[in-house]
């Protein structure tokens, strides 16, 4: 092993003097403690076309071979915030007719687009526990990005995972459980990339809270002490592998083309220059063959970040609109003066182009970018940041197709029925429906009335921030219910003012059923909404939802509460109220919100959603919480709970949740029987051995600096990031830069034991057991059920149960179905921090199958 590569054992040693995140010395000068350090990992692994990247790699190599130094630099560096039409664009290669690559948010649709769909949130599609719907949503979104001429879609999200229930962006991702999130990543990446767009798994990694994710941003709020640098998520090696890295491994194995590194630090090294994470875990261990882009402004160094594994700087300038870049001309300079090896630049460009070819993009056939992020008008600036040039920027290509069908289906099938006394739902022919709360209706400002949805008015169907899309329309619950109720001759009365208690009470008195709509919003940390700086300040309802419910329930003995929320909320104030007969969690369902809800309320769809997180009785029950006040100039967040998040924590600490992870009722009932386990393979986990091929030195002659200055006659756009040198004399003849040890080493490197193929050691994914069970529909309606498989090792340092499988099936009344789930080596493995590898212990495990993390009627021993 090269001296510059630390084994995980050494990594552990590095951590160990400070114990489990104890501290040894004061480095901030103000009494704040020192935290763990991320070990160096060099050299940066080069892509080699592993797995199903072979063809794309050959095409990419051929393409990159034709490029000049300037052209390669142009591929790796954004042109600057607001300088082109997408939230990020790289430079063009006019000589080869290669257009600028367009990078566009978001994980739920084309952000800032017109005539594009607003899909359900990632959290909602996770709540369907339906692989087919996850794939379809990904495919439909991918088709929309392609139709708009965006090459790279900035989603899906596996970071945040959801360590904090209050976390502002949890809803952009899938679930706090890494296994479920892994499935969400896999299906979404497959769907998006099959449709032809490059998917981006983000934010790598440990990006669990909005507060202090960037120092400048959080200082701008002025509501807490200023910080010097971004927060550090301090994560130990086992937790990293078994929790946070897990879903990224699934994304890499699914062939994801891009990964976005995160704003904050991990073990006190910034996400976009953390060589242990980018070179080590991502490119060596997981053998990621695509490219790493920085989050917007998460790029903090020139040569160092590139050597540490960053491949693309976004949006190119180091603060938005500054016109100055760590890369661009500076990267050209670094290659010319020898501080940045050309092989590394070749690898960066090859990775970008391999992702491009892997999803089948081609400059001849891929649609040109036909939308603009900065205006919805037809005409606008060509360089909006500097208000330069003018032309047709929005062609308003309608890419929505029939995607509303899938959006409605995800909306309905992600709806979680939490309480349903005596079958009050589905609604029969009602005499009079009372509808209450602003969350039932349209925002007076319109569905897109606040930029990036940064206000909570009207019905809530997505959170706020860059993870949004413009609603092409938003079907409100009120309009959908009215349209349906007319079929039964039902009277519908509504009071949307959350505080009009006199009207609320008198209307509630008249109704045969009262629907109380409440919500709780969250979003990204660059905006503060109602005092919530991205992360929620609490888990209570917005707009005094609890009081609204109390008023309705006091006057109506058939009150149904409908919750639109960015995650969990506390329901204790009303859950046991005798007049609250039903509770529905509808999450953030997207544009078809009202229709999806009506499908469930009236029984056209039998609810089958299951919670992708635990709903606790108190906020404290979760055991983890946002760091709202900095605990030093460089805030330190120690992930000391390790593997024990959400249900794993509740199980360990014997805390009774209100509604457990995986819980959700149906209008029918299911019975579980016949658990059988079959061993289908004798494959054992086999550590990888051997060495990489080494890195061929570039044999190109670079010429002289004067070949790299701005071409004569070029009309420069102000603040635009170019690859050129300002002047030919700016380059010192010898580099004075001291690179990290091993960074220039081109010799063959050992392949990590846990590595070897995209997603990690291939033997991890060998299926060992087939687990099947019979599920019978014992009720009076057809319905869908999600069978869940948990494993228990009984070891003290393992969670009581961990999710390791699920299967959603549709079962007619009175019939039974067999579900079959598979367990592979990874499902049985644990990360050994001393070996720096996975191990499958030879122990007895219990396999449990049931309808939620706490209702597991079937169990058997796995010998
Ligand atoms: C910052 C966000 O963290 C990221 O998710 C997004 O893709 C970029 N901004 C671009 O808008």
UniProtKB/TrEMBL annotation:
Pathway: Glycan metabolism; cellulose degradation. GO terms for molecular function: beta-glucosidase activity. Residues 785-853 form the Fibronectin type III-like domain. It catalyses: Hydrolysis of terminal, non-reducing beta-D-glucosyl residues with release of beta-D-glucose. Keywords: Carbohydrate metabolism, Glycoprotein, Glycosidase, Hydrolase, Polysaccharide degradation, Signal. The keyword Signal applies. Belongs to the glycosyl hydrolase 3 family. This is beta-glucosidase.
